[in-house]
Automatic annotation (TrEMBL):
N-terminal signal peptide: 1-22
Protein known as: ThuA-like domain-containing protein
Record keyword Transmembrane present: no
Positions of the ThuA-like domain: 27-247
InterPro entries recorded: Class_I_gatase-like, ThuA-like
Protein keywords: Signal
Source species taxonomy: Bacteria, Pseudomonadati, Bacteroidota, Flavobacteriia, Flavobacteriales
Keyword Cell membrane: no
Amino acid sequence: MSTKKTFFALTLCVLFAFQAFSQSQFKVFLFTKTAGWHHPSIHDGVNAMRNLAERHNFDLVWEENADRCFTENFLKDFDVVVFLNTTADVLNDDQQKVFEKFIQSGKGYVGIHAASDTEYDWPWYNQLVGKMFKIHPAQQTAMIDVADYNFPGMEVFPKRFMWTDEWYEFKKENYSEVNVLLTLDETTYKPYAKWGDNVGEGMGYHPIAWYHNFDGGRSFFTGLGHISSVYSEPWFLQHLYGGIYWAATGKGIKE
C-alpha cells in the first residue's frame, strides 16, 4: 500500500474512532416557557442542565418558544422532554397532540417543580405529571425521607436529610398511580397557606418526587427546584440526572 493510501486509511480510522467516542448517549429537549409566574431560578436551571449535558455526554437543546419546537418534525429526534419550571398554559391544542404522540412513541418526560403548576385543563398532562400543584407556604427548611433507593440518582441521598425549598402541596386527586421516591415530613415545617379561598394545611403523606410509566412512555417528577442555589447542589443534580437518564433510556432501576 502506498504511503498516501496508508495515510488516508489511518485518517479514516481516527475519524471513525473519534465519532464513536464522542457520540452522545441521548438527546434532551429543555422547555422553559412560562405563561404565569416566571421563576428567576430558570436560568440557573438551564446552566445546570448544560453542565449535566457536558458531564454525562448527552445532547441538549433549550427553547421556550412552543411554536418553533412542538412539532413532530422537531421532536422526533429527541429521547426526553424536560419541563423546567413551566407555568400555566404553554401549549395550544395542536402542540398538545404532538406531545402526546411523542410520549406514546415510547419517549420520556421530566417535570421540575412548577411543571406541576402547568396545563391544569389538559387531563392527559395531569396524568403524565401524576400530581398537580395546589398551594405552597413560605420557603422553609424541612426533613425529607427517601422512599426508594432503587431508582437511579437516589444512591447519593442519606435515608433522611434536611432541605430548604418551596414546598408544594399537591391536589388530593391522584391523577396516576406513581412510584414515590422522596417524601416530605410535614412535622418539620409549617405547611399552612391561604390564598383567598385556596387553603393548604398539608397532605399528611406527602410525596415530593416520583416516577411512573404512562401511555407508552416514561415520566419523572421532582418537586424540588424553586430556589436558584439548589441548581448547584450535587445531590439535587444527581437526583435530576437520574430522572433524565431513566426517562430517556428506561434504564437504571435496580430490580
